[in-house]
Design goal:
Elements lengths: L1 H13 L1 H25 L7 H33 L2 H7 L3 H37 L12 H26 L2 H27 L9 H6 L13 H25 L3
Length: 252
C-alpha cells in the first residue's frame, strides 16, 4: 500500500492542472483575507469574528477547487487510459482506488490547512498592526470552525472523487460537482421550501449541511456541526462506495 500511495502522490503532483488549481486554491482566500485585514483592520467593527468569517467564507472557493482536483484525478486516468496499466500492475482494483482516494483527501486537507494557518497567522498580524483586537479565545466557535473548514475540504474531495468514479468524464464530473452546491441545491431547496413551507429544509441538503462545518455561527435551523460533518461524510462515503463498485464491475 505504501508503494501505491507514493505512486498516486507522484501522479497527483505531476499534473500541471493540479498544481495550478492548488496554487489558486491557496492564493485566492489568502488574498481576500489578508488584503481585507490590512485595509479594514483599523475599523471599529473589524474583530476576531470578522477575520474568521473572512477566512472560512473565502475558503469555500478552496473547497470547490480541491474537489475539482479530486474528481479529475480519477476521470483523467480513465480518459487517457492510464488506469489500465495501474490495474494491470495491481489486479485488486480496490487497492488502487483506496490509495488514490487517500491521497486526494489528504492533499485537499493539507491545502486547506495551509490556507487556515497562513490566513490566521498573517491576518492576525495585519489586523492587530492596524489596531484591531484579535483574540481567538473571545469566540468559542473559532477553533471548531477552523477545524471544520479543513474537514470540509477533505469530505468535499471524497464526494468529488466518488462522483468522478461514477461518471468517468472530467467535464461531467467537474460541472456536476460545481453546480451541485452553487445551483442545484438552491433550486431544490427553494422548491422544497415552497412545498413544505419551511426554509430550514435547505440546511439538510448535502452541501448546505457540509458548509455548516465551517460556519462560525451555526444556527438551530439545521444539523449541528458534528451532525453536519457526519451527514456530509456519509454522502461522500456512499458515493465513493458506489463509484468503487462501478469501477470493479465495468471495463477499465
Amino acid at each position: 500500500m505504501i508503494n501505491l500511495l507514493h505512486a498516486e502522490w507522484i501522479k497527483l503532483r505531476s499534473v500541471t492542472m493540479n498544481m495550478v488549481l492548488g496554487i489558486i486554491a491557496v492564493v485566492f482566500p489568502l488574498l481576500v483575507t489578508l488584503i481585507t485585514a490590512g485595509v479594514s483592520g483599523d475599523k471599529p467593527d473589524f474583530d476576531t469574528r470578522t477575520l474568521l468569517d473572512l477566512l472560512t467564507g473565502s475558503s469555500f472557493v478552496t473547497v470547490l477547487l480541491v474537489g475539482v482536483i479530486a474528481a479529475a484525478a480519477i476521470t483523467s486516468e480513465f480518459g487517457f487510459g492510464t488506469i489500465r496499466p495501474a490495474f494491470a500492475a495491481t489486479p485488486r482494483r480496490v487497492r488502487v482506488l483506496v490509495a488514490k482516494g487517500i491521497v486526494v483527501v489528504a492533499a485537499a486537507m493539507f491545502i486547506e490547512t495551509v490556507v487556515v494557518a497562513i490566513g490566521l497567522g498573517v491576518g492576525t498580524s495585519l489586523a492587530t498592526s492596524r489596531g484591531a483586537a484579535i483574540d481567538l479565545g473571545s469566540v468559542p466557535t473559532a477553533v471548531p470552525a477552523l477545524v471544520g473548514v479543513v474537514v470540509l475540504a477533505g469530505l468535499a474531495a471524497l464526494v468529488a472523487y466518488g462522483l468522478g468514479m461514477l461518471v468517468r468524464s472530467t467535464p461531467v464530473a467537474v460541472v456536476t460537482f460545481i453546480l451541485w452546491p452553487l445551483l442545484a441545491e438552491g433550486l431544490v431547496g427553494a422548491l422544497i421550501a415552497v412545498v413544505t413551507g419551511s426554509d430550514s429544509v435547505v440546511n439538510w441538503l448535502p452541501f448546505q449541511s457540509g458548509f455548516r462545518l465551517a460556519l462560525v455561527n451555526v444556527d438551530d435551523l439545521g444539523p449541528g456541526r458534528l451532525a453536519s460533518g457526519l451527514y456530509f461524510g456519509a454522502v461522500g462515503a456512499v458515493l465513493a462506495a458506489f463509484g468503487g463498485w462501478s469501477v470493479n464491475k465495468r471495463d477499465a
